[in-house]
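lol so apparently i was supposed to do this last week
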Amino acid sequence: MKSKTFYAAMLAAGLLSFSACDQSTKQQSTKMTDSTTVGQLPVASGFEKTIDGKATKLYVLKNSKGTQAAITNYGGRMVSMLVPDKKGTMVDVVAGPGSVSDYEDAKGNYYGALIGRYGNRIGKAKFTLEGKEYKLPANDHDNTLHGGKEGFDVKVWDAKQIDDHTLELSYVSADGEQGFPGTLKTTVTYKLTDDNAIEIAYNATTDKATVVNLTNHAYFNLNGCGAGSILKHTLQIDANGFTPVDKTLIPTGKIATVQGTPFDFRKATTIGSRINEGDEQLKSGQGYDHNFVLNKHTLQTPIATVQGDVSGIVMEIFTEEPGIQFYSGNFMKGAFKFKGDKKDDNRTAFALETQHYPDSPNKPEFPSTELKPGQTYKTTTIYKFSAK
Ligand code: BGC
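anyway here it is w/ beta-D-glucopyranose bound
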């Protein structure tokens, strides 16, 4: 359904003063204050569908600062995040589609989705655990990417909106689903805090030994959804090392130093400044598509900071995970419909997916992703926004 959209609905509900999806031109920024053209984001009804007998819906979280996050229980996806830029204009920094049907069309890109059971790749679509080999569906070369052909990103999660700030999503993955052992009971809580942060808390238990690596695959453009290239954003990652990959993006098992390579983001650097340098690793990923080995950290200190060059919006990431996949949107081919009648396009958004390292189930030298009965998988990641 096409309409005056989600933003207009929010305006009508008095939740928002104005909005933006593309601030890249003067003409568009003039339009932003005109409520008749605030048609940048989808209406809530674009999210009302029945899939596998379960209802999908859009949930809106808000805080005392006027910041809002919209999440759908279809794949537990972060649909939008409206935060103020340096001038106080609200900008939607989440890039991606604006209805369940558009997400279905763009399935392989995992826009905004919760990823499970295993975020990132498992080599040769198999692993051995406690002496038993488990075969998974291959959906990326011969490998399994983001939990297989029917991962958590296409499941309808049970949703409970606890209050204005908090949405709790649950999904029970049956023993053997996508080849993984054990019934995995998963709960993910999104919480929008008053300091303009979206906190994602993951929790899972199993009844058989298994592997688990949950993450969120939001694509961000800090200048606004559809606002063009992200190559001039600055990025800082607190990582001395990264995991080099083979041609199919499976880690070799080594941890390489970032020193003297285009992977050194220890000081804030523009994303695009070294992306075309001809580095072999960048060729394999057709850009950045690599796991960074985070330096020792706690949830109190950001491990990555990104800033939009036009908006001044700063996103800080805090996590309990040991790694982060930096994906510079290399395979966005202009085929999918985004919010605000935009299209995706190469490198118009980036993802920073907090995680355990790719292919850990086959790499005993990497931190373990095993979960046993009686244990609880528990991890939190926070994306915090400000502007300067
Ligand atoms: C992967 C990319 C992939 C993208 C969308 C990222 O997490 O690392 O290789 O193209 O997700 O599927």
